[in-house]
Design brief:
The chain is an all-alpha fold and 46 residues long. It has helices spanning 2-29, 34-38. It comes from Sporosarcina aquimarina.
Length: 46
């Protein structure tokens, strides 16, 4: 039973670290303000 708990906790920690690294690198590479330079917002309000 202890091996099962340690395995699940280890998998969760590994999965969480992988997700954090992925979010970190995606956040640096995908700059959201570039979209406004390419396609600016219209001045008209709807």
């Amino acid at each position: 039973m202890g091996l099962l708990i340690v395995t699940i906790i280890g998998f969760a920690v590994t999965f969480g670290l992988a997700a954090m690294f992925m979010i970190h690198y995606m956040n640096d590479s995908l700059v959201s303000h570039d979209s406004e330079v390419i396609d600016p917002k219209p001045d008209v309000r709807y």
